Amino acid sequence: MKNGEQTYANHRRMHPLFHYVFSLLALILLVTSIVELIRSLQSGEQLLPSFLFLLISIIVIIVFLLIRTYPLKAQDRAIRAEENLRHYVLTQKLLDTRLTVGQIAALRFASDEEFPALCQKAADGQWSSDTIKKSIKSWRNDDYRI
User: On the chain, which terminus has fewer CB atoms closer than 10 Å, C or N?
Assistant: First the structure.
């Protein structure tokens, strides 16, 4: 978000080519392959090409999901390490072990002034990441997220 201050309302990032184009094309491919397999079954045509078409579309869907989840896992590890270091620098203590990766990811948007107190409240109350984000008064931009 190089275009200004980040807030709860604008912090989500969508990548149009991935989230809209690729996901729509993968869905169309899957639906088309299922329709083609059903058509082949009903007409008594050879099933192998339709089955292979369905198999390829399932592989594309699996690759689509993995392309998204693997980088997010790596990003979660980096965020956890960064925020643990930030908490240590601010408080000389590591993050509370009760905090989940999702909570820590939400806490990264909190300014240094409110970060330690929000960490404690989130751990004590087992706040959701959405509750944490809504509780942030002074947002800290995260311009490097995927």
Answer: C
